[in-house]
Amino acid sequence: MIKSKYVVVIGALLALSMIFGYIEMLLPSFLPNPAFKIGFSQIPILLTFYLINLKSSATVSIGKVLLMSLLFGYFLNYLFFVNIIGAIFSIFFIWLSKQLKFSVPMTSLMSSLGHNLGQFIVIGYTLGWSIALFYLPLIIVFSIIFGLIIGFISKILLIKIEKRF
Amino acid sequence: MNFPKITNIRVNKKELLIVVILTMIALISFFLFRISGQGAMVEIKIAQKLIGTYDLSIDQEVPILDDKGNLLMISVIKDGMIKVVSSNCPDKICIDEGSINLAGQTIVCLPNKVVIKIIGNNDETIDGVLQ
Question: Does domain B37-130 match CATH 2.60.320.10?
Fold first, then answer.
């Protein structure tokens, strides 16, 4: 691909990720705690990782948090730091699964686990570890279930996209 | 033999191991931090600083103020349950969490750093053991 095509593809995937995040904010949550989300905005991030490279998926992931925080008015607030640490951890876990040569669903699981773990550490540090530890089993179980679901969706999309790319 | 290619489904051992370890951690922490019985008191903290404890059996309205005296949110205790009715945070997740009444349950409002936690009555559990 030529350089300008990279820019266009990354921009489109970033916009897609933000739209998924916004739609998820609008939908009512059916999970036991409304703070938990399925994480559809992770699909474009995984697509960026597999179609381009890790650096651009980090751009999409962190860019999404930055732009969403500017749009919804929590830029540089506490919520912003919770989200940005989650995004950084998620990218680190994607890098880790790349080193361990994991499959697409497992990479998705690891990225969702990293996202939650980053948020878990920030919340534990600021609001007390007993609160954070209470949510630990939920965090892990939902990371496994929804990480794998998102991973399989991404895998199907990757197979469809790579035929046309 | 005309068996379907079931042997073709290969599970990566490293991946399976990680999933199993994670499930174990989840199970262990679930049994360590599970919720129990009807709570007696509710304690409200902002960024780990205790703001106040309230009796769950008395119906009352509890406004939650920060250290500058600004109103962050209003919670209501009714019929032994507490819920948040209004909040100035952008996402309103604390309102969506609904009413809680069991010891160990929490309502967390991340933008305001507010934690509403129900604590059990220790005397009751001791009585239960003695009977």
Answer: yes
| Residue B100 and residue B25 in contact, taking contact as beta carbons nearer than 8 Å | no
Interface test with B, best of A131, A133, A145, A149 (most B CBs within 10 A): A131
Over the stretch B52-61, which tens digit does the pLDDT of each residue have? 899 988 899 9
List the domain range (segments joined by +) for residue A74. 3-164
pLDDT digits (tens, 9 = 90+) for A96-133: 999 998 889 999 999 999 999 999 999 999 988 888 88
- Find the closest chain B residue to A31 by CA distance: B97
Total domains in the fold of chain A: 1
Question: Which one of A127, A130, A143, A152 makes the best mutation probe of the B interface by having the most chain B beta carbons within 10 Å?
Answer: A127
Alpha helices in chain B (DSSP H): 13-32, 93-96, 122-130
Domain-wise residue ranges, chain B: 37-130
Residue recorded with tokens 């559809």: A40
